[in-house]
From TrEMBL:
InterPro entries referenced in this protein's UniProt entry, alphabetically: SusD-like (IPR024302), TPR-like_helical_dom_sf (IPR011990)
Tagged with keyword Zinc: no
Statement: the UniProt record of this protein carries the keyword Lipoprotein: yes
Protein name (database record): SusD/RagB family nutrient-binding outer membrane lipoprotein
Entry keyword set: Lipoprotein, Signal
Signal sequence, start to end: 1-23
The organism of origin for this protein: Coprobacter tertius
Length: 554
């Protein structure tokens, strides 16, 4: 389908970052300079009415981190939450053992399916935005798409960027290298911000129309165009820091530009699922299905740092824990206890002792589903300042503000003794190790040694470890961001996993990606001919993504 010169090229650029593998620019240039009568616009359905666009906008927000418990489980909890060290699985799921990194195509495809759910809602909005005179909603839809596409790339690596924008999911598909996907995401996010910044200069009638949609359907950005701009810029900052090891000069510039453009200042981006009468899907999975529990690494970290978040987020053991002889070794309600990742799990029945280990607290049921926290923005800015001296605020201030914000999110004020004791902790309590009351073979020494208190005399690597460790804690339960930082920096220190996986990992090695699902011969052929060259390695759990170049010992 041909486009005419009258089409608004800025909005069109949101979905035209690339036209083919042959013409895709490696530096992320948009098509603003080359659009003309002979360019092809993206194919696919587009919304026909404003009401339809508004409804799809709401659905897209619900699918980003899927509020539907079973979908959320496949999107994050069966694998990524375990890889991150936040949570562990309690059972073997009819013989399937994802706790030991074993690969199962139906589990592995969960994040990709959730991405498709989201993209199927936002792409028609982008295509129809000009016709309906709702350009701002088209820009917001592009921000949502960019957020989800970034998560998809950080899980699997390269994907069919252009084909997916056309909602083409069946082979043949063309995979794009991850650096080019990042380039295009930067372009799309900046183009979206350009459109939203023009909003105050539009007519009163137009502003009323857009604000009416936001008032009725915006669940994550406070019904505010300015917050959507900050959200887009915060995604740019997250991307810039992610690529800090592989392209530091470009990363520095992108970070500086994002911060200068304005990142989140006073609003967590999160979906309050209680508005639909639902509870947090993670808590539902834990309390209703008994499928997830506290990870031993996270337990030991929070205990060694004496974090009040352990009691805020988790319950103590909910039943007596017994040894193999049936003797009670931990009385009900006596301690917080996590499960080691990488161990064989039994069936989910009355004999499964792990069901009694610490569950995410029922009080967490009413927390919003987080997409981007203010605390993360502060820690990202702290890392950018530490690495490149980007921004005007000093590292120690940003670091402390990040911790302060994470405590504020949990209702703990900075005047409280809890906060004062935490922020002044010089070093971790090295006397606390992980002890599995059920099986001493799972016992292991704790490995967190750094404290919380900022010390300007620390070397930069120690400072980085402190920033990432506190960011990791504050970001709970966003397992993907935690896993991203683990792969990128090696921090925080988590217990090694003696895993089985797909056979490519050595014992104690961190899983680097989820392999593509290649159950059909045509899909396998595309992966072999285009996916693997774009990835730069085999379709294995051990293959590092483009930005994952540091910490070779993990």
């Amino acid at each position: 389908m041909k486009i005419k010169n009258k089409i608004n090229v800025i909005l069109t650029s949101l979905i035209l970052s690339a036209t083919s593998a042959l013409t895709f620019s490696s530096c992320g240039d948009s098509l603003l300079d080359t659009l003309g009568d002979n360019e092809e616009v993206i194919q696919g359905n587009k919304v026909a009415t404003i009401d339809q666009a508004a409804g799809m906008f709401l659905s897209a927000q619900q699918y980003m981190h899927d509020l539907r418990e079973h979908k959320y489980q496949y999107q994050f909890n069966l694998h990524i939450d375990n890889y991150s060290g936040y949570l562990s699985l309690t059972q073997n799921f009819d013989g399937k053992q994802p706790s030991i990194y074993a690969y199962f195509p139906d589990f592995a495809g969960g994040p990709q399916t959730s991405f498709f759910w989201t993209s199927q809602q936002v792409l028609p909005i982008i295509r129809g935005a000009n016709d309906l005179d709702i350009r701002e909603l088209g820009a917001i839809a592009s921000i949502i798409y960019s957020y989800s596409a970034l998560e998809l790339s950080d899980i699997y690596g390269p994907f069919p960027w252009w084909d997916y924008k056309q909602e083409k999911q069946d082979p043949p598909l063309t995979y794009y290298p991850l650096d080019q996907i990042y380039d295009s995401l930067f372009v799309d996010l900046k183009a979206a911000v350009d459109i939203l910044q023009e909003f105050p200069s539009t007519s009163d009638e137009h502003q009323t129309q857009i604000q009416k949609i936001l008032n009725g359907y915006d669940r994550i950005c406070g019904k505010d165009i300015a917050t959507w701009i900050e959200f887009a810029n915060s995604i740019r900052l997250r991307m810039a820091v992610r690529m800090s090891n592989v392209n530091p000069e470009r990363a520095k510039q992108e970070a500086a530009d994002a911060i200068a453009a304005g990142v989140l200042r006073d609003h967590n981006v999160a979906y309050d699922e209680t508005l639909e009468g639902k509870i947090h899907p993670m808590t539902y999975i834990a309390t209703k299905w008994n499928d997830t529990r506290l990870n031993a690494s996270f337990e030991n970290m929070l205990k060694r740092l004496k974090s009040p978040m352990l009691a805020k987020w988790f319950d103590k053991n909910n039943k007596n824990i017994t040894d193999k002889e049936g003797n009670v070794v931990m009385a009900e309600g006596s301690n917080y206890i996590g499960i080691r990742a990488g161990i064989d799990m039994p069936r989910r029945d009355d004999t499964n002792q792990f069901l009694g280990y610490s569950s995410p607290s029922s009080t967490y049921s009413y927390r919003p589903v987080s997409l981007f926290k203010l605390s993360e923005v502060l820690f990202l800015k702290a890392e950018a300042k530490l690495r490149w001296n980007v921004g005007t605020e000093v590292v120690s201030f940003l670091y402390k503000k990040g911790i302060e914000q994470s405590f504020k999110d949990e209702g703990i004020g900075i005047s409280s003794q809890e906060y004062k004791d935490y922020i002044d902790l010089e070093s971790a309590d090295a006397t606390i190790d992980y002890v599995d009351p059920q099986n001493p073979r799972n016992n292991t020494p704790g490995i967190i040694t750094i404290g919380v208190k900022w010390n300007n005399a620390d070397d930069n690597e120690t400072k980085l470890e402190k920033i990432i460790t506190q960011k990791y804690i504050a970001n709970f339960p966003m397992g993907l961001e935690a896993w991203n930082d683990l792969r990128r920096t090696g921090y925080p220190k988590v217990f090694p996993v003696d895993d089985i996986g797909d056979g490519s990992l050595g014992n104690g090695k961190l899983i680097r990606r989820i392999p593509w699902v290649a159950t059909e011969s045509s899909t396998a052929a595309d992966i072999e001919s285009l996916g693997i060259p774009a990835l730069g390695g085999g379709n294995y759990q051990m293959t590092r993504l483009w930005w994952d170049t540091g910490n070779n010992g993990l």
